[in-house]
Every structure is written in C-alpha cells, then in structure tokens.
Task: structure prediction
Amino acid sequence: MSFSILDDKLWFPPAGNTTKDGLLAIGGDLSKERLLLAYRKGIFPWFEDELPLWWCPDPRFVLFPHELQVSKSMQQVLRSNKFQFKINSSFSNVIHNCKTIIRHQQGTWITDAVEQAYIHLYNHGYAHCAEAWLDNELVGGLYGVKLGKVFFGESMFSLVSNASKFAFISYVRELMKENIQLIDCQLYTSHLESLGACMINRSNFLDLLKTYIP
Result:
C-alpha cells in the first residue's frame, strides 16, 4: 500500500492503508480536531523536517494495565519515597523536557508546533502528564492523550535514574483506578517491554479502540 497526502479537510484514509513500516499519510495540520480524530482511529503523528507524518503500525505495542510488571529493584524505589509523584502539575515543563532531552541524544520529533499543539490539548482536558519530583525539582515524567478508557502515551524523559519508570508505574496504577483498559505505547522499546508491554496486531488494537472509546 502507499500513503496518502492530506489537505485542509478533516479526514484520514483507512488505518490499514499504510506502507510496510506503518506510514499512513503526510500533511494536514495539528489542530485539536485532527489530533483527536487521529487517536480515535489509532493514528499518531510523528514529524520529519517539520512535515507531519501520520502512522498506524502493525503490530502495535501496548500495555494492558493489569499486566504491569514491577521489578524488585523498582519496588524498592517505590517504597523508598525517594521521588514525589504528581499528575498534571507541570505539563508544559514535561513536554519541553521530552523535547529537549531527546534532541540532545538523537534528534526529536517534538517540534515547536507539536509542543504547542499538545499544550493546547492539555488546556482542553485531553492531554495529561505524570511527573517525578526530587527535592522540589522535576526530574522525570511522561505525557499523552486520554480518550475513553484508553491512554495514548507519547513521550517520556528522565534526568535521574529510575525517574521515568517511577512516573510510569505510578501513573499506570492511577489509570487503573480510573478504569483505563489500554495504554498505547505505539512502538517497541525494551524499557517498556520490561514493564509488561507487548505487541498485538493492528486489527485487534483498532477493535479495542472501538470498544473502549465511546
């Protein structure tokens, strides 16, 4: 299959019409309406040279919250009260750290436009963040989008060892209290696999979205 070119109209091609590596479409914008439509359809943005690229890979990397795995070492970190956990207290700082920490390493897909688009989603109650604080300083965290019973994770950062894992584990436990049934991790990482994430086929993922998002 080949990818589509988006215009100003609010639409996406069928999620299965991707290239082999999962690229679905190029172009469009980062309006609140387009981003929310994308997530509902199992599509997420990833940029290259300021150009919006829209993806829906197969298979899909996800975490079912009840399958969260916490190692003995992380259990000790959680019990130590080394970090303080907060939710949505510093969204703009979380996304900015995600942007700059990744850029320092291998470049980043979080452009200035992406940063502002997700802050806009946060201001409208769709984007959320989880934070790890140490001695009153933000040292780790993650952000994503919540729709229905699904949390779509976007990016995380860590300035101190175990800070992002602490934030992630703590947030998954909070999401379970909210009856979140699925966490979209998008693409494979060994970091998230160690916490219980797994691959499922795209059709199964899309069926779950239909079930869990009104």
The mean pLDDT is 94. The first helix runs from residue 32 to 40. The chain has two domains: 4-59, 61-199.
